[in-house]
């Protein structure tokens, strides 16, 4: 993947270039200090990937994108978190807050890799509604995710989500006082979430272990868990109760 770095801070560009050295599949083909310079280099270099700051002298990163007829895949790099929703509205792959963490950069590049290297679709039988999706990097509790339910949007840190629960053909997310629905299965979420933090309690629910308030024995050697912050009590299946004890006992 050929990448262009656009940031008015030379130090920020140097730090990002240094971080990208850990990813041999990424080649930094150029750097730009502002939108006008970036526009010229985009035309000349035709990069696959654009690491783009938002606040720059002259035009913002959003204004640069709006002026382009075509653009590479974009990963925003910024010190400001209030533009996250706007970033996803312009189909950004990811939104990295400075100082950029290596695990977040890894996740962003995995998304870029999936977009750029997925083979052309072929006619095959699929196992379920999500089988056609390209694999993406696992998420940590420190990652922030974009959640949209109808006309409402959130940019929420996974550590703030205490429960995922099946609701019809959707999954309901519990964080703060919100209960949005997303078109994802628990199986898909379980594959993406850190198993050291998010535990599949039963066929209907995944809990955040750091939100557990109390645990009590329940019927047939199972467990019942109460979470801080409200929401339903969670009855852990017999198989998962045994796994829970084994995983968390000294």
Mean pLDDT: 86
Q: Indicate the CATH topology of the largest domain.
A: Rossmann fold
Please identify the top-level CATH class of the largest domain.
Alpha Beta
Distance between the termini: 45 Å
Order of strands across the main sheet = 2-1-3-4-5
Summary, kept brief:
Helices cover 27% and strands 29% of the residues. The chain is an alpha/beta fold and 250 residues long. The strands form 4 sheets. A 5-stranded parallel β-sheet has the order 2-1-3-4-5, with helices on both faces. The protein has a 5-stranded antiparallel β-sheet with strand order 10-9-8-12-11, with no helix packed on it.
Q: Could you explain the architecture of this structure?
A:
This protein is α/β, with parallel strands linked by helices. The chain has two domains: 2-117, 3-Layer(aba) Sandwich (Rossmann fold), CATH 3.40.50; 144-248, LytTr DNA-binding domain (OB fold (Dihydrolipoamide Acetyltransferase, E2P)). It is 27% helix and 29% strand. The strands form four sheets. It has a five-stranded parallel beta sheet, sandwiched between helices. Strands 10-9-8-12-11 form a five-stranded antiparallel beta sheet, with no helix packed on it. Strand 1, helix 1 (10-20) and strand 2 (27-32) form a beta-alpha-beta unit. The N and C termini lie far apart (45 Å). Residues 118-135 have low confidence and may be disordered.
Helices and strands, with pairings:
Layout: E1 2-6, H1 10-20, E2 27-32, H2 35-45, E3 49-52, H3 61-66, E4 73-78, H4 84-89, E5 94-97, H5 102-117, E6 144-149, E7 152-157, E8 161-167, E9 170-175, E10 181-182, H6 186-192, E11 198-200, E12 205-208, E13 212-217, E14 223-227, E15 234-236, H7 238-248
């Amino acid at each position: 993947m050929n990448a262009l770095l656009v940031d008015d801070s030379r130090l920020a560009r140097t730090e990002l270039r240094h971080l990208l050295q850990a990813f041999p599949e990424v080649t930094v083909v150029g750097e730009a200090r502002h939108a006008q310079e970036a526009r010229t280099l985009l035309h000349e270099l035709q990069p696959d990937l654009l690491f783009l700051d938002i606040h720059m002298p002259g035009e913002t990163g959003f204004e640069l994108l709006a002026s382009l007829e075509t653009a590479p895949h974009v990963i925003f790099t910024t010190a400001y978190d209030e533009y996250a929703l706007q970033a996803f509205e312009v189909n950004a792959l990811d939104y990295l807050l400075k100082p950029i963490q290596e695990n977040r950069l890894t996740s962003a590049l995995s998304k870029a890799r999936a977009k750029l290297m997925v083979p052309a679709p072929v006619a095959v039988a699929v196992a379920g509604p999500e089988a056609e999706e390209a694999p993406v990097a696992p998420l940590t509790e420190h990652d922030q995710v974009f959640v949209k339910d109808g006309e409402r949007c959130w940019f929420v840190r996974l550590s703030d989500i205490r429960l995922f629960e099946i609701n019809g053909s959707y999954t309901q997310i519990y964080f703060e006082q919100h209960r949005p629905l997303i078109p994802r299965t628990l199986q898909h979420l379980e594959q993406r979430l850190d198993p050291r933090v998010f535990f599949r309690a039963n066929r209907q629910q995944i809990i955040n272990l750091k939100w557990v308030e109390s645990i009590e024995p329940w019927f047939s050697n199972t467990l019942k868990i109460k979470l801080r912050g409200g929401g339903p009590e969670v009855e852990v299946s017999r198989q998962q109760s045994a796994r829970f004890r084994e995983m968390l006992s000294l």
